[in-house]
Specification:
- The chain is α+β, with helices and mostly antiparallel strands.
- It has one domain.
- Strands 1-2-5-6 form a 4-stranded antiparallel β-sheet. It has a two-stranded antiparallel ribbon with strand order 3-4.
Length: 132
């Protein structure tokens, strides 16, 4: 009986470690209310900054990563069987826009694309929690 609890506990810890990264729109929304400077400190300089009405600014990031999917061939362990698949270029793209007020506080945000394999994109850290 105790063995079952141990196995169940280990399985629960394993599943908890396999969390999926946030979707682009969730990642962008996590920055609303935070200073844009904290975002720049975390992600680096934006690709583009555009002025908007009322002293606001739109900060835009574009992330892209390409890699070659290695070819995979069937094998019996002794010789290859069947056709090979893969060996193609896969491109992941992700775009983010953050609308900040004149004081640099993020008012709204949007994210779109396929960001899963892109590294370096994270949400705000506890040091930059929004102020009431």
């Amino acid at each position: 009986m105790i063995g079952r609890f141990i196995i169940a506990g280990l399985l629960g810890l394993t599943l908890a470690a396999c969390t999926t990264p946030p979707k682009p729109e969730e990642l962008a929304a996590s920055w609303v209310g935070h200073p844009v400077e904290d975002l720049i400190d975390t992600w680096g300089a934006p690709n583009k900054i555009e002025p908007a009405l009322g002293g606001r600014s739109v900060y835009s990031w574009h992330a892209e990563r390409r890699y070659i999917q290695p070819p995979q061939c069937g094998s019996t362990g002794i010789r290859s069987v069947g056709p090979c698949t893969g060996g193609r270029v896969i491109t992941y793209r992700c775009d983010f826009d953050f609308n900040a007020d004149a004081e640099g506080r993020i008012l709204s945000a949007s994210g779109r694309g396929d960001c899963l394999p892109l590294r370096g994109l994270s949400g705000p850290q506890s040091r930059s929690a929004p102020q009431s």
